[in-house]
Amino acid sequence: MNNNRAAIRRELESHLKRATPGRGVRESIRISQVADPLDMTQQAAEREIAVARLDRDTATVRRLRAAVDRVDDGTYGICLECEEPIAPNRLKAIPWAELCIRCQESADHSRLKAA
Fold first, then answer.
1. How far apart are CA 101 and CA 107, in angstroms?
2. What letter would DSSP give residue 21?
3. Rounded to a whole number, what is the distance in angstroms from the first to the last CA of the chain?
4. pLDDT tens digit string along 16-57?
């Protein structure tokens, strides 16, 4: 099991390296003055996209770090909601999954109702 745990940890850390926002994303958020209104609109749109990407990447990094912590404390692969095992195929597709598919669908449905 320790071998498997180490392999899972390595995979999560690999995902973590790829998901960590780079300096380039942060630099693209910087505001610079331009005279042309069309350029200003274009830059604003590019900043919005960069901010959304940074938010998404930051959330993924947070989930990956939490998954590494779960590997370390032995709770990786256990649903945080119902405490049942998460399907191996789900973990293969989304290694940082916190919820089993049933609980994830329920959470998604609740989020949609709230919106």
1. 10
2. P
3. 42
4. 988 876 655 556 566 667 677 887 788 888 888 888 888 998
